[in-house]
Design a protein that fits this description.
With about 475 residues, the chain is an alpha/beta fold. The chain has 2 domains: about 240 residues, Bira Bifunctional Protein, Domain 2 (BirA Bifunctional Protein, domain 2, 2-Layer Sandwich), CATH 3.30.930.10; about 170 residues, no CATH class. Helix content is about 45%, strand content about 15%. It is built from 17 helices and 11 strands. Strands 1, 2, 3, 4, 5, 6, 7, 8 and 9 form a 9-stranded mixed β-sheet that branches. A two-stranded parallel ribbon has the order 10-11. Helix 7 packs antiparallel against helix 10 and helix 16 crosses helix 17. The longest helix is centred in the C-terminal third of the chain and has 35 residues. The radius of gyration is 24 Å and the shape is globular. The two termini are about 45 Å apart. Bound molecules: adenosine-5'-triphosphate and magnesium ion (3 copies).
């Protein structure tokens, strides 16, 4: 079943059950706590918080999402995209736990002929929050799931809240068992690669205080009107229904891998796991980069622009590590457009602008790379001549600091020549530089103009931005 059809069936099922279909919000919303929309519920936050009355009792959507926090998982796990589509059904003080479970179960297990996804019920597992006995009872009664396929998990996995006092509640997640060839027995608690999480149901029933039940505290009250917020990963369902190993091989993403194979002359899945990760990273990032530009972001050194820059540059680096030196982004963009435009026609309409932003960023980065590569080669030649095998930390730092040459590329290029890099030394120099910049800025009281200080603040968690860990750790790497 094609990705587009998976979305269509979701919306059709829920509109058929009294839900109003709401279009995806932009990835960029005026929300100071988020860099990018990362879940279907984000556009409905005011209704859940009680700041505005919900215009409908029930809603459904397929929301564009970006999760920068998952960037390091991309290509390594089978299930994490930076951009993905989250299908959801929402109840604003209307139906609650029993119906949410029933709807999810019905859509997942109804036969494909009758509009469902046709998953075999005996492959499905559910998790519940530690003390949510009510949910356990409902799973048994409504779905007939046997006890051994319902697992309890603690608050870190199965309690949801917004990180501040306000609404919260236990979750139930639904997992599909891909079979013993994908990992260990023992359910999702034992192995989240074999047991693939496809759908998360949040039962918003509590009022949490300063301390979250996530970390073992008791909620301070019960919501007068209980809500439902769910999220089903379209790409994950697609991977399962298309019988492929991972989300990167599904119909809308795989074509980029094919393009990269054609450009590089290397084959995906040919027994080189390192190359395979690169292929998957390229395909994932090409799509997320384009979707982010489509929603109005341009590459830059701060916040969203910085994430975008990181994604685009990572494609270029990965392609280069597959042996391609020429510009590639415009070609990938065309492939992504062709795959995605049926669902997102604005990508086709806006293509010239999107493509030119990608081209420009690539040109700038390639210039950086070529001067950095020359410096690297000289340093490596000298090292080998002197009989050394480890590139000193200060050289890696100079490459990074003076030439903007990313440390991961230094590591890769060193490895290709059988050399290592003194990474500890490099990190120490990075830390010293950060400390200096902070002191300087404090002295000048110009903290806001100084990027490194800005990122450092983020790293210390002084703001409620999400995804700064991400930004900050990358800032240490690319700066
Ligand atoms: P995981 O534990 O696998 O990282 P999650 O618990 O963080 O997933 P939720 O926040 O519950 O995910 O999001 C709801 C659904 O969205 C998930 O059940 C999954 O199907 C999908 N999803 C979440 N993150 C991603 C991602 N990075 N790429 C693709 N789909 C995702
Ligand atoms: Mg996650
Ligand atoms: Mg999870
Ligand atoms: Mg989840």
């Amino acid at each position: 079943m094609q990705t587009h059809e998976i979305s269509r069936r979701f919306l059709s099922y829920f509109t058929g059950h009294g839900h109003t279909q709401v279009p995806s919000a932009s990835l960029i919303l005026e929300d100071p706590t988020l860099l990018f929309v990362n879940a279907g519920m984000v556009q409905f936050k005011p209704y859940f918080l009680g700041d505005a009355p919900a215009p409908w009792p029930r809603a459904t959507s397929v929301q564009k999402c970006v999760r920068t926090g998952d960037i390091d998982e991309v290509g390594k796990t089978t299930r994490h995209n930076t951009f993905f589509q989250m299908a959801g059904n929402f109840s604003f003080g209307d139906y609650f736990k029993a119906q949410a479970i029933e709807h999810a179960w019905t859509l997942l297990t109804d036969s494909q002929d009758s509009g469902g996804y046709g998953f075999a019920p005996d492959r499905l597992w559910a998790t519940v929050y530690d003390d949510d006995d009510e949910a356990i009872g409902l799973w048994r009664k409504i779905t007939g799931l046997p006890d051994e396929r319902i697992q309890r998990r603690d608050g870190r996995d199965n309690y949801w809240d917004m990180g501040v006092p306000g609404p919260g509640g236990p979750c139930s997640e639904i997992y599909y068992d891909r079979g013993p060839e994908h990992g260990r027995d023992g359910g999702p608690v034992a192995d989240e690669d074999r047991y693939l999480e496809v759908w998360n149901l949040v039962f918003m029933q509590d009022i949490r205080g300063e301390d979250s039940p996530k970390y073992g505290h008791k909620p301070i009250g019960t919501l007068p009107r209980k809500n439902i917020d769910t999220g089903m990963g379209i790409e994950r369902v697609a991977a399962l229904l298309q019988g492929v190993d991972n989300v990167y091989e599904t119909d809308l993403i795989r074509p980029v891998i094919a393009k990269a194979e054609e450009m590089s002359g290397r084959r995906y899945g040919a027994g080189n796991p390192v190359d395979d990760v690169r292929f998957r990273v390229i395909a994932d990032h090409a799509r997320s980069g384009m979707m982010i530009i489509g929603d109005g972001v341009t590459p830059g050194n701060e916040a969203r622009g910085y994430v975008l820059r990181r994604l685009l540059r990572r494609i270029v680096r990965s392609v280069r590590l597959l042996g391609v030196q020429e510009p590639v982004l415009a070609e990938f963009a065309a492939v992504v457009r062709d795959a995605m435009a049926p669902s997102y026609p604005e990508l086709a309409a806006d293509f010239p602008r999107i493509e030119s932003i990608m081209r420009k960023e690539e040109e700038t980065f390639l210039a950086t790379l070529s001067s950095g590569s020359r410096i690297f080669d000289l340093a490596a030649d000298k090292l080998v001549e002197d009989g050394g095998r480890t590139l000193p930390g200060d050289k890696a730092f100079q490459l990074h600091d003076t030439y903007g040459f990313p440390i991961d590329l230094t590591l890769e290029m060193a490895a290709e020549r059988g050399l290592t890099v003194d990474e500890t030394g490099f990190r120490e120099l990075m830390a010293e530089q950060r400390a200096r910049a902070k002191a300087d800025a404090a002295a000048r009281k110009t903290g806001h103009g100084d990027q490194s200080v800005y990122r450092d603040l983020l790293a210390r968690g002084n703001t409620v931005f999400t995804g700064y860990d991400e930004l900050a750790s990358e800032a240490r790497v690319i700066g």
